[in-house]
Structure prediction request, 348 residues.
Amino acid sequence: MENIRLNVSLLRRRVPNLTSAAKSIGLRPATVSNLCTGKIPIERAEVRTLVALASLAQCSLDELILRGESVEMIETKIKTLDLFSPISKGGTVGLVARPGMGQLVLLSELFYRLQDEGYAIILLQPQGDHPELKDVTEFRDIHIVHSIESASEKILSIGAEQDIIFTADRSHVLTGEIFELQDRLEGYNIKTVTTILLDLKGAVVDEDLPYGPLETLLYFDADLAARHSFPAVNPIVSTSSVLEGAHLDQNHLFTQQRARKLLRRYRELRSIVTVRGMDKLPASEQETYHRGERLEAYLTQPFYVAKKYSGIEGESVDLNTTLNDVRKILDGGTDSLDTKELSYIGKL
Prediction:
């Protein structure tokens, strides 16, 4: 099948207020979001939806639909990210979380890991006083800028030599400055700029289409955070354009789909067990419950930046190892292990 995908960057530049625009012409924001992240393959999109999006972006269907272009994944060696919602190199990532769910710890960890991979880190300082950013900005190699103009200058000065991770707060999305910056960088001889957007206030959690069309959305989960299962990224609803079948090898895609199905059912059963107790589950469902419990435990991971708090050395797990370990859990190879033996480890 031909490799086709939505031109998300064009949509983002042309229609920054996509939620309102989509609603105004009768499109469901959730449908548009799922098309942007690949949760709904473009082959399954209704023609009228694509025509409406092209009209909003004032472009042709040929411009809206990219053909034959691959999406490169940034392998973070963070198990739950690489398996369920890979980061698209050169794309835009949105962190959807309320304060206290661990988004800043994850951001710090990404900075730590990607610096080691040769990425330059640029952080656009949000307006106002944000003491919670202190732990994020303590790395000596982070370039902190205070305006879009400074960000543009810094990216252009180092972008020809290094891939860049650029991070900004939602306030700069609302003003449209982020999209203006991305437009401004078009045509320059720079490597890739991967943008990470966060919302320090947590208001984005209540929006239908957080940040506008993005390649990757990482939704944080209050239940996981409350149970201290970090990183508390929800593997069921987090999405990525890299997850389109044409961009993943079938081994990754099949394993990810099986894992997501198990975790979805485990969460349903967990609600029942909380109310009625384990004895009320049939034997076959108990096996599903315990395997889901083990998989959820395995997806926790020690972070390098958290060692001073946890006392546990950080762990990196490459994607192939994650896939092999997850298949082993799915197939019952860890049924004899206690859940605690799988919590906060690296590989099996």
In short: The longest strand covers residues 164-169. Residues 250-276 form the longest helix (27 residues). The chain has three domains: 4-67, 73-243, 250-341.
